Amino acid sequence: MVEKTQFVLSEAAKSKIDSWLAKYPPEQKRSAVIPALHIAQDENQGWLSDEAMEAVADYLGLPKMAVFEVATFYSMYNLKPIGKHQISVCTNVSCMLKGSDKIAEHFKNKLGISFNETTSDGNATLKEVECLAACAGAPACMIDKTYYENLTPEKIDELLRGLSST
Ligand code: FES
Predict the structure, then answer these.
(1) Is 6 within a domain?
(2) Among the atoms of ligand 1, which is closest to the Cα of residue 92?
(3) Residues 66, 105 within the same domain
(4) Is the same domain home to 67 and 32?
(5) What are phi and psi for residue 85, nearest 5 degrees?
(6) In this structure, is residue 1 part of a structural domain?
(7) Which domain holds residue 67?
(8) Distance from the alpha carbon of residue 130 to the mean position of ligand 1, in angstroms
(9) Cα dist. 116→9, 80, 125, 138 in Å?
(10) Are residue 149 and residue 94 in the same domain, yes or no?
């Protein structure tokens, strides 16, 4: 069970959400749910607590369910706390054809965790995700907000060495 947390959208976050709202007709506030959730997630150490989702719903003037159903549908949102770094491994078709199963296994073995788990030192969370739109560089992953393509076990070792020092 996830603990209750306090969450308040900062003025900077509200201003970013406002800039998204300005792109849509006033009656289409639902169109801003996806970017607003990203903004809230970034403000909440990379995950969306119930309180963060409620804050987005309140700010947009939408029913909480309208926000919760978006947050729970997309794999890009985290519904529980994550590690310092998030490693998102694509296992969709192009990556699968280029060996993403071996890439995923290598990440799991090296980190000692499965998908949706966080290392005991809190440094990394491993996630399985749908297409990252980097198919030409398959197999691909994203670490935090950076893409890495044409992954090999050696490249992963190098990436993980870099992560453990940050
Ligand atoms: S299928 Fe992996 S990036 Fe598109």
Answers:
(1) no
(2) 1
(3) no
(4) yes
(5) -120, 140
(6) no
(7) 11-73
(8) 7
(9) 26, 10, 7, 21
(10) yes
